[in-house]
């Protein structure tokens, strides 16, 4: 480890049983110390009380509470920037994928560790586990089912269940002779059935593996196998599920419109085929145009705060469905670890690729966007001239957006649409054959279309919000996530 390399932070989530978490944590610490790698690891035990309930039936009844307990514990470890979590609980591994889907922190899979250790063998394997784990067929997901042997129902009820759930059982913290005697009888039955090795399918039984082995029983120490797996583990597993972060509320209707365009443009046959969206919807972010053209409050900090919250919640990309807000991207991006997909750059890219040969492109946007020059900067070096309305027609655009009968006031027809069409006609008469609706509210008045007839002219109407949505969808695909380069 170099001076600049941080220790690897591994954490054990205990609390689901009195013995399991402490046993796994102790074996993890012992292994790290024995290997001489103590300086390379930061080890943690997250252990809060968990109300399990009584008896075998309680496992199924309280599974929802178990999920929430683990989610909260893992989230706390995420906040402490742990690198990976060890979870000594077979029941919890029945829903591990469901839990992992909601978290950024990797949960190291105990069943994968067992599967790797037992892979390639042909001998029979006895299993001591709860009814819940058996009926969930957890071990069969990782080990050939033909190799697995379970105790008879009579032995389970007379030996295994009392050893686990009894008043003097392992879940109550007992590791005495009464527990070991019951487990020994169950092991002996499994050996009579042909088992060569016995797998503890309850983490509290795994904590007793050493004591059972001293009685001559071939019981695997699944916790030690898990520890060995964890210390050999390196980052580089499957990437986390893609999440698109959206800075919303700038403006509110445009945010909803953008989300609808994400949904409409996604190829999906079911709900689960759609992109996961994280939206920070804050209409109180100061008005961007008021800041750019006057003395309005600076929105930079509010925009940055929204981006950081999206980043903290696992977003892979950030979309800002507000053209004017892109005047602040140069300030925001350096402080972020994830890219903002630049709607203006994507619009220019679209024009170059799909509107080749169009010499003049008209821009309809807020006075703040026009005055900031962000679209002109994005279009610099392109094969087209970007033109904007004269002062009178720019005033009409602003009235269509901000006026009492404008789109920000909730109107999508009537005077606001008429004023917008007057500005479109003005640009078309000046030679624009492509019109960019450079304010995210304007597509609510005039949809994107390849051939809008304006008098005797035909113009292409482009919606940057739709272009942004399609680009975000393209970047969400697994092949594109590994190397997202966005300007």
Mean pLDDT, to the nearest integer, reads 90
Q: Fraction of residues in helices?
A: 40-55%
Q: What structural class should be given to the helix and strand makeup? A: alpha/beta
Strand order of the largest sheet: 13-12-14-16-15
Shape field: elongated
Q: Detail the poorly predicted runs.
A: 479-487
Quaternary structure: single chain
What fraction strand? 5-15%
SS element count, helices: 23
What summary fits the major beta sheet?
5 strands, mixed
How many strands appear in the DSSP assignment? Answer: 16
Give the termini distance in whole angstroms: 35 Å
Features:
44% helix, alpha/beta, 23 helices, four-stranded parallel sheet, five-stranded mixed sheet, disordered C terminus, 487 residues
Structure write-up:
- This protein has about 475 residues and is of the alpha/beta class.
- It is built from 23 helices and 16 strands.
- The protein has helices at about 20-35, 55-60, 65-80, 90-95, 95-100, 110-120, 130-135, 155-165, 175-190, 205, 210-215, 220-230, 250-265, 290-295, 300-310, 330, 345-355, 365-370, 375-380, 390-400, 415-430, 465-475, 480; strands spanning about 10-15, 40-45, 85, 105-110, 125-130, 150, 195-200, 245-250, 275-280, 315-320, 340, 360-365, 385, 435, 450-455, 455-460.
- It has a five-stranded mixed sheet with strand order 13-12-14-16-15. A four-stranded parallel sheet has the order 2-1-3-4, with helices on both faces. A four-stranded parallel sheet has the order 9-8-10-11, with helices on both faces.
- Strand 1 (about 10-15), helix 1 (about 20-35) and strand 2 (about 40-45) form a beta-alpha-beta unit.
- The radius of gyration is 31 Å and the shape is elongated.
- The model is unreliable at about 480-485 (pLDDT under 50).
